[in-house]
């Protein structure tokens, strides 16, 4: 682009190169004609570049705004049929292709060179109006859904989820708490869901704090509140500050959250015929329950054929006594009892298969009495009320689970069989939404696995089950606030089932914590004595690191010397054998030793006579000069002594 004009700038003279000067300077390119620059063309090119850049900036902004609009449309059309999503993809492709074509055209137009386009020119229709695949082929998009239609669809989805209660079972994750080796026969969880308490056939009660536990899942406290009695029931009060402990003894106990005893029920007089006249139970307890509304009131049932209510403030006598009776008026033993949700009713299941329900304030006659709820002679292990208070579930010893309506207590609503049980405390519970009923099954050792079975309350169909472990499932508890299921098994385990999305707190708090490392015992290190004013030669070197000092002490043969084990049997190596450290033990050990010598003393002395005669040492050398030949005195016999006696002695005799 070389032009001549008034604004032309030249770099040298237009005359040709001087050959003499080229030889002198040493190169031949000297004196060539300089390039010429057209300033107007340069300014025009700069203006075009600026216009092109501003146009590209505007296109980028329009493109970004269009993408934002598409995102909004996608949000609004999330529930459209899959074909609409395919249309959106095609539309995006067509728009991206049109943008690519427009950008390529802009790049070609921005090129300063007048290169010709490759290929045939575009038809005038496409040049005037770009081709749109969506509008020309598939037609316009359907209008977005109204807000009312979206809400209706969401309600339908929620109804579908509500109709299927299986999706609400929190069983995706589990943790295992090791209680012991024997059956976990009692479970209790406080109302807030912070602490779990377990009891078993090993007489132990263990406390588990979900917020304080780490991944090692260890109990923070273990105790035996009832000495050598099996724990049968544990339950937190409605305030969560006390725990009711029911064991195999005749006296129930109440302990606080930390395991300290608050009260112990008094034992009754077993020689009184009328159990209403005694102050407490006289036989083994079965179970107990707190009042859901009144603080400090609880209930127990026993083998003395009574159900008694108590107050924590008055442990010396029960508050009231309920005496279950058969239809003929005979005594019958209650095996389990519970309060209704409002606390106005007391229900008890008896050994004759009956279920009896009393008004809490009327102890004489039961309000409801169904005499053959379960098979006679079997121990009904659990009765529990639903959260709405209208339905009662009973877990029978005849391997059945039945549902009763309190308003029409003349026959069971539903009944399910084939649920084996071998423990007198196998229980059942309702889900927090009252739509499911849960119970456990028992198995013989090595004959399968215990299961947690779920029944739908409306139809009583067996909708779901969970294989727990290779032992019986004894206890189950579904906490309404945590939405977690606690299970006690026959092999000493307590399992907690939860779902990270559906459950709250509880096991989720301790799973995320890493297991703490055990600190190394610092028994080999000695205390450092600081003496700032002592001479340098008397100062002890300052310990920089405890770990390094432990390593040095481990290498020291004196500090790391293992003590000698106690001597077993007779002593050896200068050490006395183990016989006890007291004088009496030493005497008892040596008193039985027989140290008597049965040999003849004369023979024992005479065996040294020859050696003494051959080598005299003590007496003979003293008489070697005065009496070289030993002379022994003659011993007279008794007869000779009698002859030599004087006459006066003989006369006296």
UniProtKB/TrEMBL annotation:
PANTHER family: GASTRULATION DEFECTIVE PROTEIN 1-RELATED, WD REPEAT-CONTAINING PROTEIN 70
GO cellular component: nucleus; site of double-strand break
Organism: Aotus nancymaae (Ma's night monkey)
Molecular function GO terms recorded: enzyme binding
Compositionally biased intervals (Acidic residues): 105-117, 146-163
Keywords associated with the record: Acetylation, Isopeptide bond, Phosphoprotein, Repeat, Ubl conjugation, WD repeat
Transmembrane segments annotated in the record for this chain: none
WD repeats: 177-209, 278-320, 383-407
Classification via PROSITE patterns: WD_REPEATS_2 (PS50082), WD_REPEATS_REGION (PS50294)
Protein name, UniProt field: WD repeat-containing protein 70
Residue span of region Disordered: 1-27, 47-173, 539-579, 630-653
């Amino acid at each position: 682009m070389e032009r001549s004009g008034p604004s032309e700038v030249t770099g040298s003279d237009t005359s040709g190169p001087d050959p003499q000067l080229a030889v002198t300077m040493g190169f031949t390119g000297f004196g060539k004609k300089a390039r010429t620059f057209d300033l107007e063309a340069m300014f025009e090119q700069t203006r075009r570049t600026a216009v092109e850049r501003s146009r590209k900036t505007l296109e980028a902004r329009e493109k970004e705004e269009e993408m934002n609009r598409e995102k909004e449309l996608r949000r609004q059309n999330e529930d459209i049929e899959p074909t609409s999503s395919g249309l959106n993809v095609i539309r995006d492709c067509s728009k991206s292709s049109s943008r690519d074509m427009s950008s390529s055209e802009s790049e070609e137009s921005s090129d300063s060179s007048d290169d010709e386009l490759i290929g045939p020119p575009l038809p005038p229709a496409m040049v005037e109006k770009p081709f749109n695949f969506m509008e020309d082929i598939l037609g316009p998009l359907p209008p977005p859904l109204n807000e009312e239609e979206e809400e209706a669809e969401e309600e339908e989805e929620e109804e579908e989820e509500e109709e299927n209660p299986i999706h609400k079972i929190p069983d995706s994750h589990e943790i295992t708490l090791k209680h012991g080796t024997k059956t976990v026969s009692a479970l209790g969880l406080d109302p807030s869901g912070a602490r779990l308490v377990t009891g078993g056939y090993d007489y132990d009660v263990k406390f588990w704090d979900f917020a304080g536990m780490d991944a090692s899942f260890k109990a923070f406290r273990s105790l035996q509140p009832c000495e050598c009695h099996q724990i049968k029931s544990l339950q937190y009060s409605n305030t969560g500050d006390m725990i009711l402990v029911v064991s195999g003894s005749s006296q129930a106990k109440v302990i606080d959250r930390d395991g300290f005893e608050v009260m112990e029920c008094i034992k009754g007089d077993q020689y009184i015929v009328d159990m209403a006249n005694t102050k407490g139970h006289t036989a083994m307890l079965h179970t107990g329950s707190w009042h859901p509304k009144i603080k400090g009131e609880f209930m127990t049932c026993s083998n003395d054929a009574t159900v008694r209510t108590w107050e924590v403030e008055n442990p010396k006598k029960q508050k009231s006594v309920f005496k279950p009776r058969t239809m003929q008026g005979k005594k019958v033993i209650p095996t389990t009892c519970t309060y209704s949700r409002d606390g106005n009713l007391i229900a008890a299941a008896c050994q004759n298969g009956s279920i009896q329900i009393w008004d809490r304030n009327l102890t004489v006659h039961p309000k409801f009495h169904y005499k053959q709820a379960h098979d006679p002679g079997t121990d009904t292990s659990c009765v529990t009320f639903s959260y709405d208070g209208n339905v009662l579930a009973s877990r029978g010893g005849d391997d059945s689970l039945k549902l009763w309506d309190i308003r029409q207590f003349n026959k069971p609503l539903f009944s399910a069989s084939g649920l084996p049980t071998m423990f007198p405390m196998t229980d059942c519970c309702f889900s927090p939404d009252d739509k499911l009923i849960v119970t456990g099954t028992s198995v013989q050792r090595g004959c399968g696995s215990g299961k947690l079975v779920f029944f739908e309350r409306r139809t009583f169909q067996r909708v779901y089950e969970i294989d727990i472990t290779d032992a019986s499932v004894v206890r189950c508890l579904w906490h309404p606030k945590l939405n977690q299921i606690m299970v006690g098994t026959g092999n000493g385990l307590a399992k907690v089932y939860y779902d990270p999305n559906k459950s709250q707190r509880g096991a989720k708090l301790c799973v995320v914590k890493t297991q703490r490392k055990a600190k190394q015992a610092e028994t080999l290190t000695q205390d450092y004595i600081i003496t700032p004013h002592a001479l340098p030669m008397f100062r002890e070197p300052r310990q920089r690191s405890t770990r390094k000092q432990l390593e040095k002490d481990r290498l020291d043969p004196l500090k790391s010397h293992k003590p000698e084990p106690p001597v077993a049997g007779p002593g050896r190596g200068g050490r006395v054998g183990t016989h006890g450290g007291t004088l009496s033990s030493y005497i008892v050990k040596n008193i039985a030793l027989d140290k008597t010598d049965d040999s003849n003393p004369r023979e024992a002395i005479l065996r040294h006579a020859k050696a003494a005669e051959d080598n005299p040492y003590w007496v003979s050398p003293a008489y070697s000069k005065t009496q070289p030949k030993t002379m022994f005195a003659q011993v007279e016999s008794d007869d000779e002594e009698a002859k030599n006696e004087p006459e006066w002695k003989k006369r006296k005799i």
